[in-house]
Design a protein that fits this description.
By secondary structure, the protein is α+β, with helices and mostly antiparallel strands. It contains twelve helices and 23 strands. It binds one RNA strand through strand 8, strand 13, strand 16, helix 8 and helix 10.
Length: 417
RNA sequence: CGGGACAUGGUGCAAUGGUAGCACGAGGCCUUUGGGAGGCUUUAAUCCCAGUUCAAGUCUGGGUGUCCCGACCA
């Protein structure tokens, strides 16, 4: 992608109302635009990052044998009355011209449970796991912290269906591991804790994935000895002690919740009367689990964790581009060489962000590059070409390396791996 | 849903009830090119609706919007 053709630009001017780190950096660098409180437009750079995250999640979900589907955002009122959730205030509600009521999908148990019921009759049909990546709508009383809490956000929601508790538990553990792989690939593994939480109305316990950030909005209690984290609700019931070792020496940390997994058990199969015929010929209730990740929130959280005073520092696997190629100076020689490198990379199926802008000063190009945060910067200039070289700098390192032009493609390919 | 703050060009600020001004940005032309360059020039604003007043950006009432704290959530 030629930066000169990128229709979005970085900006120095940011509204003082934009307070969170993630929205400040993402808007300044041109990844997102705010439409209204809690709703952001994905711009080309932001959408590229989103698609990388989406793909990681898709791969990991497919890896636990979940099948991807896509459900309507508009749901008929009746389904939500079946589960006694039509009364929920955070559901956006619509009416059509005939006066019929609809809910905008806030979560999708109401749609997915009767759907799967149509196809599952016997223990032989179980287990089933389906997921979707789709917009969710929530009438939040308080949107906040940029991408971390909006009224409309992309969510991956996975629903699993099982013949007994043992199978549900087994699958739950499998998804837990897949979640850790997702957060690892998104570069926030070290900061992300599995946290014991209350399951609310669904079950006694659920698990949250909480990511430590200085700017976080939740609090968790971590036992340094057992490496167990407990959320605020549970810790009160636990009388501020570790559930494993009973220690009172718990560390309080600020976090953002990037994922949540629940054992729904028969909460929804009861409501929809979803039974199956077991091996012994008896009719039994299907047991369910549900597992969510907010993609926009995850993206925002990565920025909260991975940045410095100059801008974003994208983890390799979700960077909008693997390489930021910068042509410094307008001499013919530099231009030609940079063009050639850009085209060679394209031929090798490596899409770099190429700063070919002719009207920007050196300082402006470097400042933009740091702000945008692509992990590797390659500079070609009069100076480097004297040595038949290019310059490499990693976004999270200070040192600058000069390398021979002939080794460029090899370097890039090795780096991308 | 409880509490608080704010609202003037794109952004940040100013204007005693009396001519809406400054800086930055953005656009154009010229010069410049190893860490947000310089000159000339152009551009653009009082959130909405009432009220008070000879006169409202400023005062009063109501709305709307945005942000922050709490509660709740991906």
């Amino acid at each position: 992608m030629r930066q000169s053709k990128l229709f979005t630009k970085t900006t120095k001017n940011l509204s003082k109302d934009e307070k969170s780190v993630n929205s400040r950096l993402l808007i300044k660098a041109g990844f997102f635009d705010k439409l209204m409180a809690g709703a952001y437009s994905y711009l080309p750079l932001g959408f590229l990052v989103f698609k990388k995250i989406e793909n990681i999640i898709r791969e990991e979900m497919n890896g636990v044998s979940a099948q991807e589907i896509l459900l309507p955002s508009m749901n008929p009122r009746k389904l939500w009355e079946t589960t006694n959730r039509w009364r929920y205030k955070e559901i956006f509600k619509l009416k059509n011209r005939k006066g019929q009521d609809f809910a905008l999908g806030w979560t999708h148990e109401e749609v997915v449970t009767p759907l799967v019921k149509k196809h599952v009759h016997s223990y032989k049909d179980l287990p089933v796991a389906v997921y979707q990546i789709q917009n969710k709508f929530r009438d939040e009383l308080r949107t906040k912290s940029g991408l971390l809490r909006g009224v409309e956000f992309m969510m991956k929601d996975l629903y699993s269906f099982h013949k007994d508790e043992k199978d549900l538990n087994k699958y739950y553990e499998k998804v837990k591991k897949a979640y850790f792989r997702i957060f690892k690939r998104c570069g926030i593994e070290k900061e992300t804790f599995l946290t014991l939480a209350s399951g609310g109305t669904f079950s006694k316990y659920s698990h949250e994935f909480q990511t430590l950030t200085f700017y976080g909005e939740d609090l968790i209690y971590v036992c340094p000895k057992c490496k167990i984290a407990i959320n605020k609700e549970i810790i009160e019931k636990q009388k501020y002690r570790c559930p494993e070792c009973n220690s009172k020496k718990l560390e309080i940390k600020k976090t953002v919740e990037v994922g949540n997994i629940f054992k729904l058990k028969d909460r929804f199969s009861q409501a929809f009367d979803f039974n199956f015929r077991d091996k012994d010929g008896k009719e039994k209730k299907v047991l369910m689990g549900c597992y969510g990740i907010g993609l926009g929130r995850l993206l925002g959280t990565v920025v909260e964790v991975c940045h410095d005073d100059k801008g974003i520092i994208w983890p390799k696997e979700i960077s909008p581009f693997p390489i930021h190629l910068i042509a410094l100076g307008e001499t013919k020689k530099v231009k030609e060489k940079a063009e050639k490198i850009y085209k060679d990379l394209q031929k090798a199926k490596i899409e770099a962000l190429y700063d070919d802008r002719e009207d920007k000063s050196i300082g402006a190009k470097f400042t933009d590059s740091d702000l945008i945060g692509i992990p590797v910067r390659i500079v070609v200039s009069e100076k480097t070409l004297k040595n038949n070289s290019f310059e490499v700098k990693k976004r999270n390192e200070k040192k600058i390396k000069l390398m021979k032009l002939t080794s460029l493609e090899k370097y890039v390919k090795k780096y991308i791996k």
